[in-house]
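Chain entry —
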Amino acid sequence: MTIQGKILETERLVLRKLTLDDAQFIFELVNEVAFIQNIGDKNVHDLDDAREYLTKGPLASYDQHGFGLFLVIRKEDLAPIGMCGIIQREEFDFPDVGFAFKSIYWRRGYASEAAAATLAWGYEEAGLAKIIAITSATNDASAAVLEKIGLRFEGMVEFNGNMDNRLFS
């Protein structure tokens, strides 16, 4: 199987760079109730907003940092199921691993599989010295994924004007 823009591959998944052609998927993902509750409202109300989100977010990050959020594709049917990658936020000294999956793909180990591979890629291929992670205080599922891939809770941290965020490293 050849997937254009492939960054990495696991047993069940392929991660590739996002493109503007992924706008429909991004529109659906970022408007799921769980995404808005756990990550935030990205103000993506139509496909033009989704393309702008992609342009100013992942696509700009690839150019600026050499990494960003990647589309996660399930090998068995080539379905896009989520995104996972490394983000450099202005608020933090170190980049962080982040992920979001459509809720119909939760509890199948995809987040752990993608995040572990992304973390390894960040150290080995992108040459990053330290990678952190941030999750909301109430997002126990994401915290469990972060602990499963070897990150440890460091404390609470402010992010986006909210003090209720857990920092992992």
Notes: The domain at 6-168 is CATH 3.40.630.30 (Aminopeptidase). Strands lie at 6-9, 13-17, 69-74, 79-87, 96-101, 133-136, 153-159, 162-168. Residues 159 and 165 are 7 Å apart (CA to CA).
